[in-house]
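Discussion board: Methods & Data

I've been asked by a reviewer to show the raw model output for two of the constructs in my manuscript, not just the figures. I'm not sure how much to include, so I'm pasting the format here to get opinions. Each protein appears as its amino acid sequence followed by a line of discrete structure tokens. Is this the kind of thing reviewers expect to see in a supplement, or should I convert it first? Here is construct A:
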Amino acid sequence: MDPLGGSADPLAVLDVAAAAARGFLADLDGSPAAPPGVDAAASAFAGEPLPGVGVGATRALEELLEHGVPAATRSAGGKFFHFVTGGGTPAALAADWLASAIDQNSFSWVSSPLGSRAERVALGWLKELFELPAEWGGVLTTGATMANFTALAAARRWWAAEHGRDLDEEGWSGLPALPVISSGYVHSSAVKALAMLGVGRASVRRLAADPTGRLDLAAFEAALEGLRGRPTLVIATAGEVNAGDFDPIAEMAELAHRHHAWLHVDGAFGLFARVSTLARQLAEGVAAADSVAADGHKWLNVPYDCGFAFVRDPELMHGTFALTGAPYLPTGTDERPSFGDRGPEASRRARALAVWATLKAYGRDGYREMVDRHVELARRVGEQVAAAPDLELLAPVRLNVIAFRFRPSGLSEQQLDDLNRRLGAAVLADGRVYFGTTHYRGCVAFRPAISNWRTTEQDADLIVTVTRELGARLVVS
């Protein structure tokens, strides 16, 4: 069916979608994190061949609503604690809907003056929110992985220039290996970015002082001294995924710059500690870094997908990502920037509208209050875990992640690991709350993270209640 060939109102389908979305959101707070049967419902989207004759927009949307909504986890809701997932604030969600409707390609000022101007303002506001220098360059990306990629590409360009080479123009040939140093906290997204950049996963030297991955600061200093001033890349983590811990960023910055190294901070969610009155000290030193990356769809609570990268020297971003060799493409300027020249995407959704709208709506104070509330909720859950006789708190609650496990008496470590694996699967199948397992301090553990603006005390309290209830059933069985 030709999209233009039917006589039906082409906008009527939007009314159906809006009504369904309104109903979904109205029920969200009272819904479990994963309603029963989500896996089975998702099977409706497997195995169907491409239709020769389409069913039309109305019928396609009806099928999507019929099968898709029951298959969707309520990751936008306040009981979803897996993967450090934020929701979408009302302002961000509405702006994101508008971004889809007006369908801007925000790669350049010419293609979208609105998208470009909104991104420039939004990036400036984010730098104010996190107290980063105003002169830094920035760009919105799809998430923290591409934000890390963008920032680390700038670091790679700097490193090559220190060897007298334009790597982005000439390639790697003749250059030595790029040394990379981090703690054991380094996230897989940063390592993935290094792989995409040709630096290699195996290039990362992890200097951990203990099984949690905490940085061995003495070994870090010795490693830098051993490089004898050769240009080096250092990756610090603000908000380690298993327990929310931080590398000593201020100390790493001082040592890195003393020994001619670039410091990149991966702050996917931990960068928001700089907004908090309760956890601000964790992120001291971030402004001394050379680049910073974070997610927007985590604690900023804008819809998927959104991330942001900031680089001290903006020209390093342009050197890697400039769109060259196509005379029809406009050249950006400081006054009229082309953000497609500052990050990996040339086709760029106007995700700046959601960022702009949520910051305009709630401001610095609103985000400070939200982050502090989440920190308090995480501490509340940590206290409940510590007080429960059959649970074990595995690390102090530093930010918004609670590292713990179910630990009834009389079981060996191997039995506890097996029990917690089965309990993790039971929690996901139960669906009242949603969080998964990890390995931390040598054992199978849980790591629920609180970052959704909708989350209440009642939602957070379910973490311990459901874990103990399901765990007791498994022990009896």
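Construct B, same format:
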Amino acid sequence: MRRTILLLATMALVLVLVVGGVAASQQREEQSTSSSQSATSNKSGGDVSIQSTTVKASFASGSGPDFFGVKVSDHGNLLSFQSPQGQEAVVAGREGYALCTGTGFAVGGHDTGDTEENFGAPKFSQPNPGKFPLTITRNTTDGALQLKQVWSKPDATEKDVTVTMTVKNISNAAIFDIVLSRSGDFDVGTSALDQGARTSDSVWQWDDPSSATIETSRGGTMLTALTLGASHETLVEHSNEWAAATREVCTPGTGIATPTSAQDLAMRVFYNLPGALNVGQSKTVKFEYGRM
């Protein structure tokens, strides 16, 4: 009788350990998924992303003057753009995007690195973990729009990287006059003082060889609209104004007259996508960051 009781107790203990192990494994898996998606819940029960500087894809090629390095976060922010070696152009990962409707001030969602609002947790497609190409898909928390970013593998020869962005209407009604912006706080070289200029298609910051500022490298960084058939505009902005407010909108105003004197700057390209975006319809545009 005692043997029977002992055997039953042993079997019960084994069962508890097995069930506990499975539960712990499931909990770890759920935590891993939650962490990779950087998600929490808002008051309405929807998923809202937490600000993140997690590197999701990175690239590096060459060395010294020929070096080119790019890092992108799991939210689709350009965290690092370095060329030549040791010359970081992105200030503290403060680069990103804003998706707007109407006049460009009714923000559907924005994320510029250390501040964001109204975007849900990201979903990924990445054939090689940690590498490019990288696809990041996010929905606005109101369930109206989906934004998909496809970051191509950076070009080591041209020293540039392209991101293709697709806006899709996932609501049950037409949405009008969408604006999609990319902008960021950039410092070229070793000083925050850069000159800025723009054309109708590109905006850039650079250090002129004749400038009085002390720099170890005289170069530049350019942001370009590649979808020339879609209406688009470029802007150079004061860095402090961008950081304080305009980073959260798509069309902040006229910007600074260019070319500028050497000062602390931000730069932006935005696309106007006028008219109706019907249910299930999508529109795609491309941006490119490059060394100059």
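Answer (T.O., handling editor elsewhere):
This is acceptable in a supplement if you add a one-line summary per construct. For B, something like: Confidence is low (pLDDT under 50) at residues 1-49.
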